[in-house]
Amino acid sequence: MECKFLVIWGENLSSTAKEKFNRTELAIVKLPNNIKHVVIGLVLSDGWLEHRRKNARLGFAQSLDHFEYIWFVFSLLSHYCSSYPMARNRTTINKKKSAIQIYTRSMPCFTELYSFFYPNGVKIIPDNIYNMLTPIALAHLIMGDAAALKYRLLICTDSYSIKDVVKLMNVLIIKYRLECSCYNPLTKPRIYIRSQSMPILRDVVKPYMTKSMLYKIGL
């Protein structure tokens, strides 16, 4: 029997790891909105976009303790990856830590996002962050780069300028009605989401979070 079920674009994409594509095939690949929002959230947190030759690719790494989350991310992005997640060792404060890292292919669809986040080669918060910070993107920002505190949440935005952090914080306040404050603004600015806003935040991001990361929003 011929199947005529409707499938939402981007919901039925399978892994292409270990497969090869030519430049023409890579050029026609587009990111469905749900996947684009995942990528935006990753880049806002610990992910990065690097420009290699003609196009950019996405890289993302997490400690081995967060293997479930990195595998969750790979399951979403495997259609755009040429290889499976790889183990790596990284040194922080004279300590070696095991991590899992994924890379996508270099493709025009990532180059488009690179132009927003790296206009001068340094990662920033884009001017159109109000539209880019969807619930999916916010969920991955939290899973990738937030720390759970007692009754509160701390988003570790240390690598951004105070101007960029305020830009991001304003979106959280205006778009999501979250009560926020900026901690340590002169050195490593970070965003606190206050306890009274945590129920609102949970309603927004919980549907898009993997089970192992729910502790970050107090669940």
CATH homologous superfamily label of the largest domain? Homing endonucleases
Can you tell me the overall shape?
Answer: globular
User: Number of DSSP strands?
Assistant: 8
Helix content: 25-40%
How can the largest sheet be summarized?
Answer: 4 strands, antiparallel
CATH class of the largest domain: Alpha Beta
SS-based class: alpha+beta
Write the layout of secondary structure elements.
Layout: H1 23-27, H2 33-44, E1 48-52, E2 55-63, H3 67-77, E3 86-92, E4 95-103, H4 108-117, H5 129-132, H6 135-145, E5 146-149, E6 152-155, H7 162-174, E7 180-183, E8 190-193, H8 198-205
How does this model look, in words?
The chain has helices spanning 23-27, 33-44, 67-77, 108-117, 129-132, 135-145, 162-174, 198-205; strands spanning 48-52, 55-63, 86-92, 95-103, 146-149, 152-155, 180-183, 190-193. The chain has 219 residues and is an alpha+beta fold. The chain has two domains: 9-123, Homing endonucleases (Endonuclease I-creI, Roll), CATH 3.10.28; 125-214, Homing endonucleases (Endonuclease I-creI, Roll), CATH 3.10.28.10. The strands form two sheets. A four-stranded antiparallel β-sheet has the order 1-2-4-3. Strands 5-6-8-7 form a four-stranded antiparallel β-sheet. Strand 1 and strand 2 form a beta hairpin. The radius of gyration is 18 Å and the shape is globular. The relative contact order is 0.14.
